[in-house]
Amino acid sequence: TDDSGLVTHKEILPVRSLLLGDIHRPGSEAAYRVGPLRCHGDQNFWNAAFFDKETSYLHFPTFHGELNADISFLFKTTSSSGLFLENLGIKDFIRIELSSSTEVVFSFDVGNGPLEVKVKTGLPLNDNRWHRVQAERNVKEASLRVDDFPATIQEAPSDGFIHLQLNSQLFIGGTASRLKGFLGCIRSLQLNGITLNLEERARITPGVRPGCPGHCSSYAALCQNQGRCVEKANGFSCDCSQSAHTGAFCHKGTDSLITFYQKIQRQKHEKAPKASKTFD
User: Fold this and answer.
1) Residues near 68 by Cβ (< 8 Å), separated by ≥ 6?
2) pLDDT in tens, 203-217
3) In what residue span(s) does the Laminin G domain sit (predicted)?
4) Shortest CA distance to 186 belongs to which of 74, 63, 62, 65?
């Protein structure tokens, strides 16, 4: 007789309609209330840039991570490879890239020779869904984690150089020298706890757009009756799981679960033998 719910994913907002079944019979009624919308969120987390050319990139001041480098970001792409970020020194460097559709590589050199830390996922990362990358380097070890896959950790040499000395600009999504950059979206890029404003820089950079567009930004309205638009590698689909409708665009009506249950109960009642009474 009572039901309630809390919408927590902004992808399925706004609430455009409410569908109640089996309320047209005599004696049936329904009452509903849609509570207030409370918007909150972290703009740093949704700060994104879209790279639509392999030769496009963003550049920022030199990354200062001499003894500790903690880098995290999210990406989504349909490309099988591309450079996420790179910062060079005279000999030292730090770099994170998508080397194949199932592998991310974190590499750097602090003077002891190049060191690579790799994570192979076994599942495609170019499925146009968001994936998280977390890379860290300190004087003792380096680690790389992709989504919830096991992290790869490598120990630093017991004796050797420990300072990462960089002097060029920090490049995001590509570099001025490498031809194949990253195609897709990067967001929530943090270096040692500081979020880079990708959107602000993208507004003044050719080949890079602020935010992260997709098929759903143009065609979400085609998903009817509370159907949710879901990005696909080469298009989109409509998720009708939160709707009482079916079809490619959630446009075909179906009976609600309550209506179906009530129909079953009525059928049972009609088939049951009727009781008789005897009067004196």
Assistant:
1) 136, 137, 138, 139, 192
2) 999 999 998 877 676
3) 47-212
4) 74
